[in-house]
Amino acid sequence: MKYSTKIHQLKAIQEKMKSFESNKSVSSILSYIFLTLILLNFTSFSVKAQTTNSNQVEIIKADSLIGINQPFMQMKKLIGNVGLRQGTTLLYCNLAVLNETTNILEAYGKVKIIQADTVTITGDTAYYFGNERKAKINGHVKLDDRTIVLSTSALDYDLNTNIAYYNTGGKIVDKKSTLTSKEGYYSTVTKLFDFKKNVKVFDKEGSLSADSLRYSTLSKEAFFIAPTLVVNKKDTTYANPGSQYNTVTKISNLKGRSTVKTEDYTMTADTMIYDPPTEIGVAIGNIHFISKKDKAILTGDRGRYAKKTGVTRVFGHALLKNVFENDTLFLTADTLVSLDNKETKTKKLYAYKKVLIYKSDFAGKCDSLSYNVSDSTIYFYQKPILWNLKNQSEADSIHILLKNNKISTMNMKGKSFVISIDTLTNYNQMKGRKMLVTFTKDSKIEKVNVEGNGESIYFAVDEKNTLTGMNRVQCGKMTMSFAKNKISKIAFLAKPEGKFIPPKEVKEDDKELDGFRWKAVDKPTKESILARVARTIPASTKAVKKDSLSVKKDIKAVNPVPLDKIIKKSKTKL
C-alpha cells in the first residue's frame, strides 16, 4: 500500500480516537484498544519502510530547520539556501517542506534540480516524489541538458526514464533553430523530442509546420509523423508521414507522395531526396516535374533534377507535355533529359530510345531526338519517320523548324523518302540523298527540293480531279511545288530521265519507287502515347491525399494555385 493511502487512513483513525476520549463506555474502550493496535501496526510499517528505503531524500544544508509536529509523520521545514540530495540528483531552493515519512518534497523559490551533473531543470515551484524519482516543476521552467534549452510553464520529469513531458506549450532553442509546440516528450538520453499539436520550427533560412513531429537534437533531423510544410527562402516542401528533414543541411528525404516547389519548378513523387543548398532532387515513383516558365511537364518513374547545371533526367514511362497557346506537344521515350543553360540562355530536350512524338499538325517516331526549345528546332535521328497530314517522310536523319508552334521547314539527310497522298488517294513519291520540305502556315506541304539521286512518281490530275497519267522521273536535282494538295509545278535541274504513262497503261509495279513503305499504322497519336506511359496509381496514394487535408490551408497560403490542382491539370486538360 502506498504511503499516501496510509496517511489518509491514519488521519481517519486519529479523528475516531478523539471521539473515543470523550466516550468512556466499555464498548468505546474496547474500540479504542483495537484502534491503538492498528496504529501500532501502521507505525511499525512506516518505520520499517523508512529503514529499508535507499532512495530517501537527504538534507545537505539550510539556513534554518523547523520540525513540523504531525501525528505519525516526520516532516521538516527548511528555510534559506536549501540543498538536498538523492543519489546523484541534487535539489536547491529557497524554501522546502520534506515529508521524510512519504519521501515527498515540496520546493519553493528558485528551484533547481541537477541530475548526474548533466541535466539541469529550474522553475518557481516543484514537487519531488523521492520513492518514484519523479518531479513536477511549475512556473518559468527551463530544462538544459547541454544540447538544448527547453522552456515551458509546467514540466513533468521522470528521473528513471530520463523523459520530460509538457502539455502547456513549450519552446526549445539550440544554436541554429527554435521549435515550439503545444505538447512534447523529450528524452535527455537519446536526445529525441516528440512534439504534438501546432508544431513550428524556425531559423534564419525558413520554417517548418506540422501537427506532430519527432526531432533529434543531436543530428538536427526532423522525422515527419504527420503532413508537414517546410518553407525556405528558395523552395517550399510539402511532405507526408515517413519523411525526414535535416534542419542544418536542409536535405529532405521525402516519402508518401511529397512535393518540392522552387521558383522555376514543381517536383512531385512518391519518394524524393532534395538538397536545397545544391538544389539537386532525386525522385522515384510516378514523378512530375512542372516548369512554370516553359509551360512544360515531365513525368516518369524516376528522375533527377539539378538546378545549377539546369539538367533534369526522367526514366521509365517518360513523357513531356509542352503546352502552346492552342496546342500541346506530347513526347515519350525510355529516357528524357532537359537542359536549361542560363549562361547561354539555351533550353534543350534530349530523348533516347523508342521515341514517339505527337502534335496536332505532325507526328513521328525515331530512336533518339533533340529539341532546341530556344530556336524551336527538333532533330530526329536513327531512321526517323514523320507524318504530316496526308504526308509521310523518312530519312537517316531529319530536323524540323517550328514557327508560331507550327511546322515550317523539314531538312532530310540520307535515304530521304517523301510520300504524299493526293485527292484521288494516289501516292506521289520523291526520294534522294537530301531533301528540303517547306510548309504553308496551315502545315501543308508547299515545296520539296531534292538533291542527289532524285527519283519521283507523281500522278497528273486535271482541273476536274481526273487522273490523266503518271510521271516517273529520275534526276539529280528536282523541285516540286504543291497547291491544294496537288502538284502544281515541277522543275528538273539536271538531265532528267523520265516517262509519262497513260492511266490505262499504269501497272501496280509502276506505282511504287524502290523502298516504298506506307506506314500509317505506325503513326503515333495522343491516345497511343498516353496509353504507353499510363500507370496504375497505388491505393496508398488515395490515403495520403486524405491525410493531406489538414495542411492544405498552409499550402494555399504559400502557393496561391494549389499543387494538387496543378498536377491534376497536367493529367487531364493537357
Structural commentary:
The protein has about 575 residues and is mainly beta. Among the domains are: about 5-50; about 60-170, lipopolysaccharide transport protein A fold (Sandwich); about 295-525, lipopolysaccharide transport protein A fold (Sandwich), CATH 2.60.450.10. Helix content is about 15%, strand content about 55%. It has a 36-stranded antiparallel sheet that branches. The protein starts with a helix and ends with a helix. Residues about 1-5, about 20-50 and about 535-574 have low confidence and may be disordered.
Would you kindly provide a brief summary of this structure?
The chain is built from 6 helices and 36 strands. With about 575 residues, the chain is mainly beta.
Low-confidence stretches: 1-7, 20-52, 536-574
In DSSP terms (H or I, runs of 4 or more residues), the helix count works out at 6
Question: Helices and strands: which structural class?
Answer: mainly beta
CATH homologous superfamily caption of the domain at 294-526: Lipopolysaccharide (LPS) transport protein A like domain
Q: How much of the sequence is in beta strands?
A: over 45%
Mean pLDDT across the residues is 80
Write the layout of secondary structure elements.
Blueprint lengths: L2 H19 L4 H27 L5 E4 L2 E7 L2 E14 L2 E11 L4 E12 L3 E11 L4 E11 L4 E10 L4 E4 L3 E4 L4 E4 L1 E5 L4 E12 L2 E11 L4 E4 L3 E5 L2 E5 L4 E3 L5 E11 L2 E11 L4 E12 L4 E11 L4 E13 L4 E14 L4 E14 L2 E11 L4 E5 L3 E4 L2 E4 L2 E7 L2 E16 L5 E13 L5 E17 L5 E17 L2 E7 L4 E5 L24 H8 L5 H9 L4 H7 L4 H9 L3
Helix pairs in contact: 1-2
